Amino acid sequence: MNRSSMVLSAALGLGLAAVMTAGPAVAVDHSSSQASTAASRSAYIGSAAEQADNKAFFDAVMKSAKAKQAANPQLSVVTVTYDPSSAPSFAQEIANSAQIWNSSVRNVQLRAGSNADFRYYEGNDSRGSYASTDGHGRGYVFLDYQQNEQYDSTRVTAHETGHVLGLPDHYSGPCSELMSGGGPGPSCTNPYPNSTERSRVNQLWANGLKAGAIDKGLTKIVR
């Protein structure tokens, strides 16, 4: 059974909305009458507000990672833990996204588990997919049904997860650049970060592992 037959409305997008709460601001009930619209699909284009929220989400995850690193100073790699249980329709895409990132970078690894640094949610939202944080080391990625039908779902999920790891949007980039998101159009299905994106993530999380340098990592997101 495909996802569109499992939910009343199905389609997806990769824009980040300015929502600073502990959970999705919209209902994620599959029976919700709030379906995604053209506005949610165009949210893949990005905005200055989205850039600010992307950084805020990364800051929150890095803060949580810092606390875990302090408790386990012998660790050579930071583990960022995620909870996919509230996005069951996207379980495979989330797992694929984690595997893609884990095979692409060396200084941070994604693992599903308890005491999560962030969570995935799913549902219908006119703003499309986005990431958000409560500012206290916890946040979430929301995956919108309709945008995930229009765009490649693994690319969408890997793109949003890229924000968790510190990467900003760059919608004017080519399909080979993961953080170009929907800029290249729905025909782009590449879910892998390019060499520059991989290097940026490794640099950010390497800083996080060095004593006294983790706070600097919070402000070193480069375009």
From TrEMBL:
It comes from the Bacteria. It is an enzyme of class 3 (hydrolase). Keywords: Calcium, Disulfide bond, Hydrolase, Metal-binding, Metalloprotease, Protease, Secreted, Signal, Zinc. The keyword Secreted applies. The active site is at 160. Zn(2+) binds at residues 159, 163, 169. Residues 1-27 form the signal peptide. It catalyses: Hydrolyzes proteins with a preference for Tyr or Phe in the P1' position. Has no action on amino-acid p-nitroanilides. GO terms for molecular function: metalloendopeptidase activity; zinc ion binding. Disulfide bonds join 175-188. Ca(2+) binds at residues 152, 154. Binds 1 zinc ion per subunit. Its EC number is 3.4.24.77. Pfam families: Peptidase_M7 (PF02031). One of its GO terms (biological process) is proteolysis. It is found in: Secreted. Its cofactor is Zn(2+); Ca(2+). Gene3D superfamilies: Collagenase (Catalytic Domain) (3.40.390.10). Belongs to the peptidase M7 family. NCBIfam families: snapalysin. This is Extracellular small neutral protease. It comes from Streptomyces luteoverticillatus (Streptoverticillium luteoverticillatus).
